[in-house]
Design goal:
Blueprint lengths: L6 H8 L6 E2 L6 H13 L8 H22 L8 H9 L15 H19 L5 H11 L3 H12 L11 H17 L24 E4 L6 E4 L6 E3 L15 E3 L8 E6 L4 E7 L8 H7 L1 H9 L3 E2 L11
Parallel strand pairs: 2-7, 7-8
Antiparallel strand pairs: 1-4, 2-3, 3-4, 5-6, 6-7
């Protein structure tokens, strides 16, 4: 008699062969992103205009500053009691909206803003709105910065200053990546909601399909954790019927939009078999033309990119 496995059993057997969770390393996440952003800013195949190319170069400077700040960060880890409380309540271990935030993040923000101003002074050509935003952030009060950080982490769009949000997000990424890199995969429990990061609770920015075995991982834009989700499944509502894939005619083959007719949302999906250098935050940011296409097709983004704050 042939035995038929249900989806849960298939998933359980599959997890024996590959990791369900990939935690970030500290050594090169941001420098790899910076390299990819520069590559995309100068690639004719990317199909973006000069304005977005300039923004990609700006964000490459930001990513370089993030990597430098990460190397000198001296954060304290959450206490054992905090971690146990998160497990007890079925929450992500480093739940971004509720975890006590070390004030060191503001120093990271200062480093990032100073790097942008130095880049404008030496290289020039950076978007002037971004340069002005960094100048404003360097003079902002602690209360203002913490209020904006709260709004960014809880996605309260009406309270977010869109001009400064990418730089605040960048500083917070350094902190959460540092904390996530100290965890081990067995420490991180599975959540009942597969569409959020099991480490920090953020929504994924995109997913990547691996080149060898074709497994798909969702990628967290805050702590850089990646976690497995089955293919041809909506990463927002978990529906499996009618999933469609969209791309720009003549555009890069590395990125498509995975769209769900059930919730009318989409996220981008990247393919390493087309380009091993794909990076979720960078490639999502560089493919704004695809966002315009999806909007015209009646779909909305399931979640945004932290380096470009837009209303969803």
């Amino acid at each position: 008699m042939q035995r038929v496995l249900d989806p849960a059993q298939i998933e359980a057997f599959a997890e024996r062969d590959f990791p369900r969770l990939r935690l970030p390393g500290r050594r090169a996440v941001f420098s790899v992103r910076a390299q990819r952003l520069r590559q995309l800013s100068s690639s004719p195949a990317a199909g973006h205009g000069q304005s977005i190319a300039g923004y990609l170069r700006l964000m490459a400077l930001v990513a370089d500053a993030q990597q430098a700040a990460l190397g000198a960060l001296g954060l304290s880890s959450p206490s054992a009691a905090e971690l146990e409380r998160a497990r007890t309540h079925g929450m992500p271990l480093l739940h971004a909206p509720s975890l006590a935030r070390d004030g060191l993040w503001r120093g990271v923000l200062g480093q990032i803003c100073n790097a942008v101003l130095a880049g404008e002074a030496t290289l020039g050509g950076l978007p002037q709105q971004a340069v002005a935003a960094c100048t404003r952030l360097l003079g902002a009060s602690t209360d203002t910065l913490e209020t904006q950080a709260d709004a960014v982490l809880t996605a309260r769009s009406e309270e977010v200053d869109a001009a400064v949000a990418p730089f605040i997000s960048a500083a917070l990424q350094v902190v959460w990546l540092e904390l996530a890199s100290r965890l081990s995969a067995p420490e991180v429990p599975s959540l009942s909601v597969p569409g959020v990061c099991p480490v920090c609770g953020a929504l994924p920015v995109a997913s990547i399909v691996g080149a060898e075995r074709g497994y798909r991982y969702l990628h967290c834009p805050l702590c850089a954790t990646a976690w497995h989700l089955e293919r041809v499944k909506c990463s927002h509502c978990q529906a499996t019927e009618g999933i469609g894939y969209y791309s720009i005619e003549g555009g890069p083959a590395t990125v498509r939009a995975e769209a769900c007719p059930s919730c009318h949302s989409y996220r981008k999906i990247l393919y390493q078999e087309k380009d091993m250098a794909v990076e979720p935050v960078a490639d999502d940011l560089a493919s704004l033309a695809l966002d315009l296409l999806m909007s015209s097709e009646g779909f909305h983004r399931a979640s945004g990119n932290p380096l470009l704050w837009l209303a969803l």
